[in-house]
Amino acid sequence: MAKKEEEDSDVSGKVMKEDISEKAPEEIPEKVKKEIEQLKGRLQEFKKQILKKFSFISAIGLLPPQAVKMMEEEVSEEEKGMISKEKEKVMHIIIIIPDENEKSMHDLKIEAIKLTESVKPKIWINIMTPKELWNLGFDSKYELLEAIAMSFPLHDTGILGALRVAHIHKSLVLRKFERYVVSYVIAGSIVRGEAKETSDVDVYVVVDDTDVRRMSRYELKEKLRHIIFSYALEAGELANVKNKLMPQIYILTEFWEAVKDAHPVIFTFIRDGVPFYDRGAFMPWKLLLKMGKIKPSPEAIDMFMGLGEKVALDVQKKFNDIVTSDIYWGIITPSQAALMLYGIAPPTPKETVDLMRKIFVEKEKILEKKYVDILSKIVSLYKEYEHEEKKTITGKEIDELLKESSEYINRLKKLMEEIEKKAKNKIVVEFYDDAFNLLKKIFGNLSESILIKKFDKELVKKGLVSPRSSVILNEIVKANENYKKKKIEKHEIEMIRKNSMGLISELTEFAHRKEMFGIQKCQIKVLYKKDNAPKEGKLFVFDDFAFAMLADSNVVKKVDLKGNKMTDILMPEFEEQFKNYSEKPRRVKITHNLYFTLSKIFGEFELVF
């Protein structure tokens, strides 16, 4: 029993098991939808004519069936009698007009009746102002307000769409938390009669948290916020309107404290809000406020006065933040980007000013000195704030800094275009150098023309690289010549950048294969033991020198075959010397003296050719 009571009483349990897949019930049956489609064409002319004469109309909607009976209860006794005499089926249209046009209601109704006399089934005209709509909420006639919200819109400047998305959202929230929702209230532009198709729809949800046990109130509020906000997105999709729902979530204990203190936001919310659902809490608050019974406490008055006194300090702080955060970082970061585009490693803010001056003003001469002066001025000002040497700044100073920083950024954009252009031009030279360095590695240090001929004969014609590689190589040569003549075109640079990667990749792979083949051709395995464990070393023998490599060692033993002298060299030096020796004709000759020297290195060993 205790367990059940805890589950029933704790809203947090429901929050932990949220399921936002539930959808609002379909408000209009399929049969009625078909009838609406048939009526739509006939009603379009009515809408056109009525709006032509009464352009101030906010909305025209065809009420759903569930609204008809409720709507008929709202009309006068005379109109009820007239409706009851109708033998044919009667459909209801709701027309919403601004409060200030209430005097035109009589003329509007007469004209609307004339225009719908020939429409079948019979159309009954209902005209309301927003004030009358909100009175339905104040009178707890939520079902009728919901039914109007689900009207089929023939014309809508925003009020029907706002009501519809709020109704769907409310349905989702109540379906999840009905026994905990104290009030669901709409406010903002829709209540003031200023709603448009794109207006935000402000709604307030007050949730009872008085029996929360399993989590803190902060945690509860965050979980409620997450779920109710997700429902807001879902409601927007279901309502198919442009209005964006903006829910505010309050837990009851927090809300009550704000009511007692007459917090300005809560004060406005209670004064102007309209209940879309209420369990008897919101309307008493509203009436108490109207009667002057809700007044701020002395502590609240002192707090609000204190906030007012801090305005000047807050404004000054915001001015300071504009300089220290917005303007400073707004020019430092793009300056660092320009230096990185040039090829400089990401500099620190402290280094940025000097590098901008040295590289772009003095070296490249592509930036005017006055722009670096602007950068230096803003950086210096930032440092003054950082070290508290300067504590205030005037609005005039900020205007000047904003103007100068804007000029600086605009000039920086042009500078980056110039840097990028130069960088693209360098691409041609880099690809040319990469391609011919690889060809020299493959064929030797020969002239450009001979390397091209060898490339075609030894690689292309033998099918070792793709036939298109020859065309690309010639394109690189031509582009390099044009670059030297300063006649390089932008499309030519892009073509080289796009095509050359494949050629460089093929040449790199072929050079690597050749190098590996050279290593394998010169290599002799040496089997030996160390600490009774079998090991495998390597031996490279050339005309004058031999290189011995022990397993698991970065040191290479270089042996002079003439004098059998032995020296230690590191791996990078070996790799450099190996390139020179491996290009010479190989002649393996293991002399007695070499064998003796190797035994000093490996101990007892065996050569495997």
Description:
This protein is an alpha+beta fold. It folds into five domains: about 1-20 and about 160-300, Beta Polymerase, domain 2 (2-Layer Sandwich), CATH 3.30.460.10; about 30-150; about 310-395, no CATH class; about 425-515, no CATH class; about 530-609, no CATH class. Helices cover about 60% and strands about 15% of the residues. The protein has 24 helices and 14 strands. Strands 13-12-11-10-9-14 form a six-stranded antiparallel β-sheet. Helix 9 packs across helix 11, helix 17 runs antiparallel to helix 18 and helix 19 (about 395-445) crosses helix 21 (about 470-485). The longest helix has about 50 residues, at about 395-445. The radius of gyration is 42 Å and the shape is elongated.
Beta-strand portion reads: 5-15%
Number of helices: 24
Which class best fits the helix and strand makeup? alpha+beta
**Major sheet characteristics:** 6 strands, antiparallel
Kindly report how far apart the N and C termini lie.
88 Å
Instruction: Give the number of domains.
Output: 5
CATH architecture label name of the largest domain: 2-Layer Sandwich
List the helices and strands and how they pair.
Elements: H1 2-9, H2 11-16, H3 30-53, E1 59-62, H4 65-74, H5 77-85, E2 90-96, H6 105-115, E3 122-128, H7 130-138, H8 142-149, E4 152-156, H9 159-177, E5 181-187, H10 189-192, E6 201-207, H11 217-239, E7 245-251, H12 252-260, H13 264-272, E8 274-278, H14 282-290, H15 298-309, H16 311-342, H17 349-363, H18 369-386, H19 395-443, H20 448-460, H21 468-484, H22 490-522, E9 523-530, E10 533-541, E11 545-549, E12 555-560, E13 566-570, H23 571-582, H24 592-602, E14 605-608
Parallel strand pairs: 2-3, 6-7
Antiparallel strand pairs: 1-2, 1-4, 5-6, 5-8, 9-10, 9-14, 10-11, 11-12, 12-13
Helix pairs in contact: 4-8, 9-11, 16-17, 16-18, 16-19, 17-18, 18-19, 19-20, 19-21, 19-22, 20-21, 21-22
